[in-house]
Amino acid sequence: MTIRDVARLAGVSLGTASKALNGRGGLRPATIERVRQAALQLGYQPNALARGLLAGRSLTVGLITTDSFGRFSIPVMQGAEDALGQGRISVFLCESRDDRIRERHYLSTLLERRVDGIIVTGRRQDPREPIGQDLPVPVVYAMASSTDPADLSLVPDDEDGGALAVRHLLSTGRVSIGHVTGPQRFTAARLRARGAQAALAAAGLELAGGEPLYGEWSEEWGRQAADVLLRSVPGLDAVFCGNDQLARGVADAVREAGRQVPGDVALVGFDNWEVIAASCRPPLTTVDMNLQELGRVAGQRLLAAIEGRPGSGQQLLPCSLVVRESSRPRAWPAAAGAGR
Amino acid sequence: MTIRDVARLAGVSLGTASKALNGRGGLRPATIERVRQAALQLGYQPNALARGLLAGRSLTVGLITTDSFGRFSIPVMQGAEDALGQGRISVFLCESRDDRIRERHYLSTLLERRVDGIIVTGRRQDPREPIGQDLPVPVVYAMASSTDPADLSLVPDDEDGGALAVRHLLSTGRVSIGHVTGPQRFTAARLRARGAQAALAAAGLELAGGEPLYGEWSEEWGRQAADVLLRSVPGLDAVFCGNDQLARGVADAVREAGRQVPGDVALVGFDNWEVIAASCRPPLTTVDMNLQELGRVAGQRLLAAIEGRPGSGQQLLPCSLVVRESSRPRAWPAAAGAGR
DNA sequence: GTGAAAGCGCTAACAG
DNA sequence: CTGTTAGCGCTTTCAC
Fold first, then answer.
1. Exposure of B15 by Cβ count < 10 A (0-12 exposed, 13-18 middle, 19+ buried)?
2. Residue B51 located in a structural domain
3. B53 near A CB under 8 A
4. A118 and A267 housed in the same domain
5. Is the bond into A262 cis (omega within 30 degrees of 0)?
6. pLDDT-derived band at A193, boundaries 50, 70, 90
7. By CB neighbour count within 10 A (0-12 exposed, 13-18 middle, 19+ buried), where does A170 fall?
8. For the domain that residue B143 is a member of, what is the CATH number?
9. Are residues B299 and B152 in the same domain?
C-alpha cells in the first residue's frame, strides 16, 4: 500500500498523486478529487519513515524521564503533547530509572531515530548533569534542570509557590504559621521555605517555631512534626507543608490532638496531588505547580529551538493556589458535610 | 553524517562500510577495525528511518493508554520495555484521555510511523471496543480488554486476587470478614468480590454482612462502609477492600471507632499503590496485580505476534499478596513503632 | 497540468 | 574480500 498504488488507481503518475495529496502544485480540482478518492478507497497512509528520511525531520521527539511513577512526568508529557501534537509530532517516552547507562542508551536510540528534539524531565528540579554534549538536536529540561547554563531549563517557581501559600494563610487571618517540609538537600524544599519566610517577613512576622522543620517527604514525618509544633507553639493557627503527603500527616495529627482543621489550624500543602489532597480530611488547599502548563511551554520552547530559536538559562514558571476546605477562614460558617 | 562519510574516511566503499558496521559478509578484520574507528571518530549513528524504510520494520511500537494518571499504564509500559528493549524497540506513548477521536488520531499517526505493533492499555479492564478493524499490525490489550474474542487481552486475575486476600485473612484466624468495594458496574469489583466469596464458601463461611458493600473507589466510602460494618456485624474481625484507598478509609474509621488494626480488625487492600498502602496506619497488606510483569508478558506476546505467532482470547495473569502490618495475626507480639 | 527522474541513507544482491 | 548497483516510499525539481 504505497502512493504508487494510489497513483495507479487514480490513473495518474506517482508525482501527481503526491502533489494531490499534499496540496502542492497547481493541479486540476478534478484530478485532486480523483486521487483523494483513490487514497480513501485503498485506505492509504503515507509512510512517515520515507517522509522523514527525505525531509530530514522525523516529526518525532523524545521524552527522557527519571520519574518512575509518572507523578510529574505524565502531566508534563500531556502538556508537551498539546503543544507538539498540533504539529502532529509524536513522543517517544523513555523512562531511565535513574540509571545513567540506561539514559545514555536511550539517548543514542533517540538520535538514531532522528528525533527532532528531546525533553528531559524528572522527579526533582535539582540541577543535574546535562544529558549529553554537543547534541545534534535541541534539548529542553522541564521539571528538571541542567547544570549547564547554556541549556534551557524550565522549573516551577517554588519560592513564589511558598510565598503564595503563606500570603493566602495570612489573608485568612492566620498569624502563627509553621512550616513542615522534606529534606533540606532538596532545592525545592529550601526554595519553598525561603518563599514562605519572605512572605512572612513582608508582614512583619516569622515562622512559628523559628525555623522550617526539615525531615522526610512522608505522612509519618508530617504527623511527628505536627506534634512538635503543637507542643512548642501554643498559638499555632496554620501550617504550610512542603508537599501534600506531609499536609495529610499534619491534618491527621492535628485532628487527633483534638484540634480542628481549619477551625483551629489551617493547612496548605504543595503539589496538588489529587489522590492525596482530595481525600485529606478536610480536603486540602494546596499549591499547584501547573505541570501540564509547564509541559506545554516546554513543547513550545522545543519547537522554537527546532526552528532555530533556541533558549537558555533557567526559567521559572508560576505556581497557583488551589483552595479547598483546609484553609477556610475561621469567620466562615461551617460547610455542611465537610469532614466527619 | 552518513555512512558515506564513514566509508570515505575509512577509505572503503559505502557497501563495505555497511557490512563492517553490521558484521555481515566476510571482511578482513583490519578493514572492519578501520571502519569502526572511522565511525567512532565521526560519532556516526545509523539513520533508523532509512533502515526502517528498507527493512519494512521500524523497531518501534505504540502504546495507547486511557489512563491519564499513569497509575496503571506506567508499570505496564516499564514491563513492556523490558521485554521489547532487548530488541532495541522504542515506544511511542499516546495518552488518549478517554477520547475516541483522539484515540483514532493516535492510531493513524502510529500506523503512518509504521510501528511494528501496538499495546492498548487502560485504567480498567472492562471490555472495550477494539481499537480498530483489520489493522496491518498486531495489537495486544494489556490491563484492558477487547470485546472481540479474536483479540489478545491480558488482564490480572482479579477473582483469584480476591480469593488470595480472603485465604490470607482466614489463615491468620479471621472468621468474620466483610468486603467493601467500588461500584458494581466495574468488572474488577464484581470479580474480586466473587473470588472473596468463593474462598469463604470453601471454608464454609459467608461474607460478614452477607453481601459486598458496593460504593465508590474512595476513602470516604471506605470510612462510611466501615461504620456500617462495625455497627451491623458485632464480631467483625477483618475487612477485605476492593482497593487501597478504601482500605485506608476503613483503617481510619476502625481506629476512630476505638478498635485496633490489626488487633481487632485485620485489613487487606487491593492494588499495592505504594503511596497509599505504605502510608496507611498501619501499613497495608494488599493484593498486587504485578502490572510490570503483565507489561512484560504483553511485550513478549506482541513480539511473538510481530514474528507471526499471534495469540487471542482473554488471558489472566496471577496477582500476588504483599503482606504488611494490617493483617498481622493476633497472636503475634506487637511490633515496635508500628502506627501511633 | 502532468509526468519523469533524482535522491534522502541504508542494506542486500551481485560482480569483480 | 571489496565495490557497484538497485531500490525501500516519498517529495521535489525540471521537462513536456
1. exposed
2. no
3. yes
4. no
5. yes
6. very high
7. middle
8. 3.40.50.2300
9. yes
In a domain? residue A53? no
Say yes or no to pLDDT of B72 above 60.
yes
**Residue A94 placed within a domain:** yes
Per-residue pLDDT band for A164 (boundaries 50, 70, 90) equals very high
Segment B8-36 mean pLDDT: 92
Mean pLDDT of the B199-215 span: 97
Does B184 lie in the same domain as B173? yes
Residues 41-100 of chain B with CB under 7 A from strand D are 50, 53-54, 56
| pLDDT computed for residue A85 by the predictor | 86
Identify the three-state secondary structure at position A150. Answer: coil
Task: Report how many domains make up chain A.
Answer: 3
- Same structural domain, A66 and A93: yes
DSSP, collapsed to helix, strand or coil, labels residue A120 as: strand
For residues B322-335, one letter each, b for 16 or more C-beta atoms within 10 angstroms of the residue's C-beta and e for the rest, the string is bebbbbbeeeeeee
Same structural domain, A273 and A165: yes
Asked if residue B273 and residue B173 are part of one domain, the reply reads yes
Q: What is the average per-residue pLDDT within B103-114?
A: 97
Task: Indicate which of B81, B93, B223 best probes the interface with A, i.e. most A CBs within 10 Å of its own CB.
Answer: B93
Q: Which residues of B222-246 are buried (b: 16+ CB within 10 A; e: fewer)?
A: bbbbbbbbbeebeebbbbbbbbbbb
Q: Which domain holds residue A12?
A: 3-46
Burial readout A203-239 (b: 16 or more C-beta within 10 A, e: otherwise): eebebbbeebbbbebbbbbbbbbbbbbbeebeebbbb
For residue B331, the model assigns a pLDDT of: 63
Name the residue facing B95 among A48, A78, A218 (closest C-beta).
A78
What average pLDDT is seen over chain B?
94
Same domain as B251, residue B308: no
**How far lies A96's CA from each of A102, B68, B208, B248, in Å?**
6, 20, 46, 31
pLDDT score of A26 = 80
Residue A135, CA atoms < 13 Å, CB-side half-sphere: 24
Residue of B nearest to A113 (CA): B48
What is the C-alpha separation between B205 and B201, in angstroms, rounded? 5
Q: Which amino acid is present at B103?
A: E
CATH number at residue A40: 1.10.260.40
- Is A66 part of any domain? yes
DSSP state of B334: P
Q: pLDDT tens across A4-35, in order?
A: 999 999 999 999 999 999 998 788 999 999 99
Q: How far in angstroms lies nucleotide D16's C1' from the CA of residue A16?
A: 14
Residues 9-38 of B with CB under 7 A from strand C: 14-15, 18-19, 21-22, 24-25
pTM comes to 0.94
Burial of A97 (0-12, 13-18, 19+ CB in 10 A): middle
Strands (E), B145-189: 145-146, 152-156, 177-181
Q: Do B110 and B70 reside in the same domain of the chain?
A: yes
**What are the cell numbers at B138?**
498486531
Residue whose CA is minimally distant from C9 C1': B50
